[in-house]
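Q: Could you fold this chain for me?
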Amino acid sequence: MTEITTKRTVLVTGGSGLVGKGIEKYVKETDKSNDVWVFMKSSDCDLKSRESTRSYFEKIKPTHVIHLAARVGGLFSNMKYKVEFFRENIDINDNVLACCKEFNVIKCVSCLSTCIFPDKTTYPIDETMIHNGPPHPSNEGYAYAKRMIDVLNRAYNEEYGCKFTSVIPTNIYGPHDNYHLTDGHVIPGLIHKTYLAMKNNEDLTIMGTGKPLRQFIYSYDLAKYFVWTLNNYEEMSPLILSVGEEDEISIADVARLITEAMEFKGKLIFDTSKADGQYKKTASNLKLKSLVPDLTFTPIQQAIKESCQWFIDNYETARK
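A: Sure. Below is the predicted structure, expressed as structure tokens.
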């Protein structure tokens, strides 16, 4: 384990989002150091602008950065706005990493996504396979922009000796998610749809067949291993942060867990005229397991129940 002896200033970009809020909660509950944690909101700084990013770094003077900020969205949003997803994420990532170098940041850990992996691949996918072929066409704008973080991390390390690395979480969910019905990800979207179906006494319609398989990671569990990576992980190559292959679950089963947690009594209808996206993208967490032998995760039933309850309790103010 890396010895942390001096006080650090840790800047978390995208600090008000799903993962940022998870890290904030985790740090508040567990961090006993004198570190200063700064959770940046999009209203604090326009990371698409180099000048705005530079001024913010000048003001905060971070020693470490967790880079979460990105333009994100669900399947249908990614399919519709490929240019915007590519250009905005390229700008954000380039500006953040350039300022990390300029301001002598000791370590930067960026957040990637499993959608960056090749569409045509063998399973399970692992950290060595990122650049083995094109990503799924449905989100290629976002996926290629995210892949370039890995390329830049290696380039900055080779040319300037910067310690820039990245993690690849599987599908994240939890409190403070984006519950938008079309632009949100699958779990928050289903939670919101179930809430409305109950309110309006209607059946619950799910886009697609419900057959695709996914590995879901609770935002609080991800926060724990994100902070572990910042403190302990010394490689430049990405690290997959995920539950095991045995924890893969179908969208239909996730929908059932949500309806059980919210005590929904109506019918589940699968609209098979809608696209499913990738059938599976099983990721291997063997590298993480080898580094953290006592790996533990919150059971999905408990985590989904907590996520549903958070949405009900915060319905008026939740992002939707």
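A (continued): The CA atoms of residues 69 and 198 lie 33 Å apart.
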